[in-house]
Every structure is written in structure tokens, then in C-alpha cells.
Specification:
Helix content of chain A: over 70%
Number of strands of chain B: 8
Distance between the termini of chain A: 51 Å
Number of domains of chain A: 1
Shape of chain A: globular
Strand content of chain A: under 5%
Radius of gyration of chain B: 22 Å
Helix content of chain B: 40-55%
CATH class of the largest domain in chain B: Mainly Alpha
Number of strands of chain A: 0
Number of helices of chain A: 12
Number of helices of chain B: 21
Structural class of chain B: mainly alpha
CATH architecture of the largest domain in chain B: Up-down Bundle
Oligomer: heterodimer
Largest sheet of chain B: 4 strands, parallel
Shape of chain B: globular
CATH class of chain A: Mainly Alpha
Largest sheet of chain A: none
Strand content of chain B: 5-15%
Distance between the termini of chain B: 62 Å
């Protein structure tokens, strides 16, 4: 188990981050060149002003019609995404690891706070799963990939929580936590998690069309 | 639940099924993907997280108690996702179902974009499905007929060249009883604007040409109509998916205006026409924006009132409500000007909720009403949401500055026994403007 842990925090971590960063960049570059080649008449309407305006409105909870009419989903979605991104970056144990291996130091969030944030991510995943099951529109359009993707996001946080609270054998839990986190990183560029890299662009394009051409709101 | 439970007999789709094979569909689909679609389709399909937030956006979905197969994402699931999953190798029956969904259960009204956190353009995806169906001859019969009409005579309703000018002269004659020196100028070069109408006007709403001419005459406008094809701009080929013909129609339209050397084109009270000229056709032809400035009549009437060229003799008491046509509101942002014009005409205006950019569709546009009688009940039952919205206002008059909205709203008003009248802005301005004799 020790070897597996060493491998997971070492070469595998490098690999996962490399796939995540390089994969994301590659996908963005490929998509941009495809857009230039095939969607040039539409790409030419992209506008920083209207694109950012649209993103801004959608980044505000209840700042758009869609958010307003789905209040529970809105609250959970915002909490989920904020905790999902902020928690791993400012978690004490992660920063300690970074310091240990690479000498990188920066402020962390109190452990009690990150503990709650992790629980919120896990709870949000359970909410999304329930919604996928009980909301008939969502169930109608859900495929296996949607369940896998949800599990891929759920696992690192659930195992992280267990590891932090010393449930189960510590080394096994830590290893599982690391492996599942790496799985998530690798999955981002190549699954629906890619909305992380493409979502801002689709939003910006819609904002540009609505603002620059149609002179109307898109929120 | 799903399209297979609500298939409708249509002669065009029935013939389409007979002529196609999975191989031919796959071949055409692959060619379409390779030749015409790109990053937009790819990112939309891949980025969609299947959250279902778009469901409450769609009037079909709301009107069917949230039936997920009518939700925007549900329609994409039943069409594009499946086509992509199978590489287009689908049975002709499946493609006919795609056609029924894309042509008759989506108005391309773009309301769902206000609900999608990722900005996914479902209307675009449905347009690609229609494009595929059009390329394969799998189109509902009636809408295909309008495309044939555009192809043969460059207008939507088989109006022949002499019938067009004849109708104009007939309306001029009629109007001269009321305004003795009124003209409907034909082929006058270098004037301020070319007035552009849709083919249903000479065909069966000819009084609208009369009214427009009376308003322009009263306002002292310098204008003209073309005597040649290029006058019609409704462009149903845009919605049937026959973009080659759509391009031809738009080219004629712009070139007619350029030949007449007019300063701009004023479009009648139609939403499709405006979308074709302002948003779709111009791009297909390679113009980033339109080569001749284009204004919709909402904006033009607003100018006439604002500049005092038209004065309202008697403001009407109302109450009235305003229907926001998607193609000029979500498509051109004319909601404020529309309100200013209506408020200049009526004392009491009752707003519907939601309204403006968030307004519910009339359920006729996007080519749906043009799919004809077989699908009439689909759009009436599919727009109970709008009927409820109209009813909630408690008024008896709806102002709707769009031909298609008139068609759609008339049907739901009749079916749900709402007892309401629908008026164009031109109807009310014509009836209530100061006349020369009174001025």
C-alpha cells in the first residue's frame, strides 16, 4: 500500500496534472481552430464587452431568469462550485504537501471551514444524484456518463472527508483519495466536466450575440 | 412519453420515409457534419451537463405539464444526440420523428437561452436537425411548399409578378377614396426607404398595405415598393433548412434595395422577415451586418411618432396588453420602443408576465404554423401557457406587431375561448392618426 501511495502522490500526480493542464489546453486549441475554420462567420461576433457582461450576470446567484426559476438548484450549484474549487486549493493538508514537496507556501483556510466545505460538496453531489433520479426532465436526458461523471466528482471529496476524520485505515483512505482526485483531473478535459473549460466560451458567445447583434439580454 | 407516442400523418414526411435508407441518411449526416457544422455544435453537445434547467423555458413543455420530451434538452436528446451517437445511421422513421420534433415542436424562439447557465443554443441545434431533414427531403409538406414557392417566384405564397403590382395598384385605388393624392410608389429610385412586406399581405391581408401607405402618405414619407421579385422577405426557406434558397431570397431582397438606391429598408410587422434579413440571411451571404440598413416597423413607427410626423388624434382608453414577438424582441431588442409606441396609442396598458426578452412565444413562429393543418393542434395545445398568460391580463385587446404571432395567437384565442382581438401597430396608428382634413 505504501508503494501505491508513493506512486500516487509522485509520478501519477505529475501525470494527472499534466493530462489535466495539457489536455485542457489541447482541447481549447483544437476547438478554437475548429471554430476558426468552420464557424468564422460566428466567431467574428465575439465581443469582450458583451461576453464578460453575460458571464458576469450568470456568475451572480439569481442574476438570471434561469437561476431565478430554479432556486434550490441555484443555491446548491453555487455552493457546490465555489467549494469544489476553493476547498482543495486552500486546504491545510494540500498546502502542507505542496510545501513539503515543492516548497510552495501560501495561506490556508481553517480546517473546520474546509471540513464543512467538503461536506457541502458531498451533500451537493447527493442532491444532484437525487435530482438526476427524481426530476423527470433530468432523468429523461441522463445517460451512464452523467452518473460516472458525478461519481468521479463525488469520490475525492467523500474519501477526503473520510481520511480527514480517520474513518477506515488511514493510508488506504489517503491513497483512495489521491487516486480519485487524479481520476477527476484526468476526466475534466474529456468528459462533460469539460464544461469547466468550454462553459465560459459558450456563455461569452451567447452574450456577444445577444448584446452585440440582438441588443437584448441573455440572462 | 416521447415523439413515438404522438406521431402525426404528414404527406411530406410519409414520402420522405419511402425514399430514404439508413445509408443515405448516414452519408448526408456525415457530409453535413464535415461541411457545415463545427465548434458550435461540438461544444454545445459536449458541454451540456444535462441539468434540465431549460425545461421551464419552453412553452410546449410548460403546456404539457412539464413532459420532459417537450423540454429543449429532451428534444435534443431525441434528435441530435441520437444522430451523433449512431453516426447518422438511423432508420427513416427515426428521421421523420426528428423532423416532427424540429419543425413542429420547436419555434426556435430562443427563450431557453435565458435558462441555460452554459449558454447553449438549442435553437441552433434544432436548425441543424432541420437542415439535415431538408437535405434529405424529409420536410413537412406545407412548409416545403413555401420553400418551393420561394424557389419559383421568390415569395412565400406563389404570388405572381403581375399579381403583386396589381394588388398594390388596387390598394392605391382604394386608398385614394380616403386620401385623394395618395400614391403607392413603385420603382422610385433614390428615395428614403423601400417598404418590404411578406407575401401574406398581398395574398390575404391586403388592407395592411393600404394602412401602411396611408400612414406613410400622412407622414410625408419618401418611399417606394419594388415592382419586381425581391419585395417579399418572409423567407420560409430559412426555417425549412434550405439555406441555398434562403440565400437567393435574401440576395434578391438586398439587391432590389440596392438597385433602387434607397437609403434603407423598412420592414413590415413581421418577425421572421426581420430575422432572415437581420440575423440569418445576411450572414449566409457573407455580410457581417446587412448591406442596406434595415429597420423594423416598430422602430420606424416609433421614429414617426417621436419626430411628430404622425400625431395621434385620439388616444384610445384600452386596456390592451403587449405581445413581444421573439424575433424583434430577443432578436433585435425593440421592447422599449414597442412599449413607447403602444403607450402613445393607449392610456391603459396591462403587461403580461413574463414579458420583454422573457416573453413566451406565440407558438406559430419558426416555421411551425407553416407546417400547416396536420400540426395545427400541436401548436394550439402546445401553447396553453400563452393562453393562460393572455387570460390573466383580463384585457380584450392584444397588440402584436408580427404576422406569425397574429396567426398563433388567433388560434389559441379561438380554441381557449379567450374572446380577445389582436391588432397590429399599423391597425391602431392608421385608425387613430390625425388626418390631413382634421390637421
Amino acid at each position: 500500500m505504501r508503494e501505491l501511495y508513493e506512486f500516487a502522490v509522485g509520478p501519477l500526480a505529475w501525470g494527472a496534472f499534466a493530462v489535466f493542464f495539457l489536455g485542457s489546453i489541447a482541447r481549447l486549441v483544437a476547438m478554437y481552430s475548429l471554430a476558426k475554420k468552420k464557424d468564422a462567420p460566428f466567431l467574428s461576433y465575439m465581443s469582450w464587452r458583451y461576453g464578460l457582461r453575460s458571464i458576469g450576470h450568470w456568475l451572480v446567484p439569481f442574476g438570471s431568469l434561469g437561476w431565478k426559476e430554479n432556486p434550490a438548484l441555484t443555491v446548491v450549484t453555487f455552493i457546490f462550485h465555489i467549494c469544489l474549487i476553493v476547498t482543495p486549493i486552500f486546504l491545510l493538508a494540500h498546502v502542507v504537501l505542496l510545501d513539503l514537496y515543492h516548497g510552495i507556501e501560501y495561506p490556508t483556510l481553517p480546517e473546520a471551514v474546509t471540513d464543512v466545505m467538503t461536506m457541502l460538496v458531498v451533500a451537493a453531489c447527493i442532491f444532484f444524484a437525487a435530482r438526476r433520479f427524481f426530476n423527470r426532465t433530468v432523468r429523461y436526458v441522463t445517460s451512464t456518463q452523467d452518473w460516472i461523471v458525478l461519481a468521479v466528482v463525488f469520490l475525492p471529496f467523500a474519501t477526503g472527508l473520510l481520511a480527514y476524520h480517520q474513518v477506515g485505515p488511514p493510508l488506504t483512505m489517503a491513497t483512495l483519495h489521491i487516486l480519485s482526485a487524479e481520476l477527476m483531473l484526468v476526466a475534466i478535459p474529456f468528459t462533460r466536466l469539460s464544461h469547466m473549460i468550454f462553459g465560459l466560451f459558450t456563455r461569452a458567445y451567447m452574450g456577444s450575440e445577444f448584446g452585440g447583434v440582438r441588443h437584448a439580454k441573455d440572462w | 412519453m416521447g415523439i413515438e407516442t404522438r406521431r402525426i400523418e404528414d404527406a411530406g414526411l410519409a414520402r420522405g420515409i419511402e425514399r430514404l435508407t439508413p445509408d443515405r441518411i448516414a452519408e448526408t449526416f456525415q457530409a453535413l457534419l464535415a461541411g457545415e457544422t463545427g465548434a458550435r455544435l461540438k461544444t454545445y453537445v459536449e458541454t451540456c451537463v444535462r441539468c434540465g434547467m431549460c425545461a421551464p423555458a419552453c412553452h410546449y413543455c410548460i403546456s404539457h405539464d412539464g413532459d420532459p420530451s417537450y423540454s429543449p434538452v429532451g428534444k435534443v436528446r431525441q434528435t441530435m444526440w441520437e444522430l451523433l451517437r449512431q453516426g447518422g445511421r438511423v432508420e427513416p422513421r427515426f428521421l421523420a420523428d426528428c423532423a416532427q420534433i424540429a419543425y413542429t415542436e420547436c419555434n426556435l424562439c430562443r427563450r431557453c437561452m435565458h435558462y441555460c447557465p452554459l449558454g447553449i443554443d438549442t435553437a441552433y441545434i434544432m436548425t441543424v436537425v432541420r437542415r439535415l431533414c431538408s437535405k434529405l427531403g424529409m420536410t413537412p409538406m406545407y412548409i416545403q411548399d413555401t420553400t418551393h414557392s420561394h424557389s419559383a417566384v421568390l415569395n412565400q405564397m406563389w404570388v405572381k409578378d403581375d399579381e403583386w403590382t396589381d394588388s398594390l395598384q388596387w390598394q392605391e385605388d382604394e386608398a385614394r377614396a380616403e386620401f385623394p393624392d395618395l400614391r403607392i410608389p413603385l420603382e422610385t429610385e433614390g428615395v428614403d426607404f423601400m417598404y418590404s412586406v411578406i407575401a401574406p399581405e398581398p395574398k390575404f391581408r391586403t388592407q395592411l398595405i393600404y394602412q401602411a401607405a396611408a400612414i406613410f402618405h400622412n407622414a410625408g414619407c419618401s418611399w417606394t415598393m419594388p415592382a419586381t421579385p425581391g419585395w417579399d422577405n418572409s423567407n420560409m426557406a430559412m426555417f425549412s433548412g434550405d439555406f441555398e434558397i434562403m440565400g437567393r431570397v435574401e440576395r434578391y431582397h438586398f439587391e432590389t434595395a440596392q438597385r433602387l438606391r434607397v437609403k434603407r429598408i423598412v420592414m413590415g410587422e413581421c418577425g421572421h422577415a426581420f430575422r432572415a434579413v437581420y440575423d440569418v440571411g445576411n450572414r449566409w451571404l457573407g455580410w457581417k451586418m446587412h448591406p442596406v440598413p434595415v429597420v423594423h416597423s416598430i422602430e420606424f413607427f416609433w421614429e414617426l411618432l417621436d419626430q411628430g410626423k404622425i400625431r395621434i388624434a385620439q388616444k384610445q382608453p384600452g386596456p390592451v396588453t403587449i405581445h413581444d414577438p421573439c424575433n424583434v424582441i430577443r432578436g433585435r431588442g425593440l421592447m422599449d420602443k414597442l412599449r413607447e409606441v403602444v403607450h402613445a396609442l393607449y392610456d391603459n396598458v396591462v403587461e403580461m408576465t413574463p414579458n420583454r426578452e422573457h416573453n413566451l412565444c406565440c407558438c406559430a413562429g419558426g416555421g411551425v404554423i407553416n407546417c400547416g393543418p396536420p400540426f395545427k393542434n400541436v401548436r394550439i395545445v402546445g401553447n396553453k401557457a400563452k393562453a393562460d398568460q393572455l387570460k390573466a391580463t383580463g384585457v380584450e385587446t392584444v397588440i402584436a406587431p408580427c404576422h406569425n404571432c397574429h396567426g398563433g395567437l388567433e388560434d389559441i384565442i379561438h380554441h381557449f375561448k379567450l374572446g380577445m382581438k389582436i391588432k397590429f401597430l399599423g391597425d391602431v396608428i392608421y385608425a387613430n392618426m390625425e388626418r390631413p382634413a382634421e390637421a
